[in-house]
Amino acid sequence: MEATVYILRCSDGSYYTGLTKQDIEARVWEHNEGVYDGYTKKRRPVHLVFHECYDRIIDAIARERQIKGWSRAKKEALMRYDYEALPELSRTRRQLD
Prior knowledge:
Elements: E1 3-9, E2 15-20, H1 24-33, E3 47-54, H2 57-68, H3 72-79, H4 86-96
Antiparallel strand pairs: 1-2, 1-3
């Protein structure tokens, strides 16, 4: 079964990264309806800004964890599909730590 990793932009400008095995539009609807308690419930409405599909759930889980550990700038580069910027943004963050 296919799994989707997604990023939502919340009403406060923050980003939420999630994972779903259901249709992505249905999952975004659930976030906007406040179906579940969690990060996005108090930050509605949310908008889908990025998603990737995976054939294997284990790959989707690994990608979600990876993205959750990224800086805001790196997430925004991913949303722009600016893959060339990702390594530099990783180096910049390591230098700040």
